[in-house]
Amino acid sequence: MKAVKDMEPDCVLLEQAGEFMAAGYMQRPEASPLMRFCLALKRFFETCPLPEYAGEALYPCSESIFNNTGQAMTFHYSMAMGFSVERLDEKIAEAADEQLAASLQRFRETVADYPRVQGYTHSIVNFGRVLEEGLDGYRARIAGHKATAEQREEAERVEFYEALLVLLEGIAALHARCCDLLAQCEDPCAERVLAALRQVPFKPATGFYEAMVGTNFIYYIDGCDDLGRLDQDLWPYYRDGLADGEFSREEAVAWVGRLFDNVNICNGWNTAIGGTAADGTQGANDLTLVCIEAAKGRRRPNLALRLRKDTPEEVWDQALDTIAGGTGIPALYNEEEYIRAIQQAHLGVAKHDIPHFAFGGCTELMIHGRSNVGSVDEYYNLTLCLENSLHWHLASCTTFGEFMRLFAQDISREIAEMTEKVSRWQESKGTWQPQPIRTLLIDDCIDNGIEFNAGGARYNWSVISISGLSSTYDSLAAVQEVVYDEGEVSAEELLDALDANFEGYDDLRRRLKECPHFGNDDPYVDSIAADIAEHTFRQFLKHAPWRGGKYIAACLMFVTYGNFGEPVGALPDGRLAGTPIGDSAGAFQGRDVSGPTALLKSATRVPNYLAPGTLITNIRFTQRLFDDPQAREGVKALIRTYFDLGGMQLQINVVDQEILKDALEHPERHGDLIVRVGGYSEYFNRLSDDLKLTVLERVEHE
Question: Any idea where the domains of the chain sit in the sequence?
Answer without folding.
Answer: 4-111, 127-307, 371-697
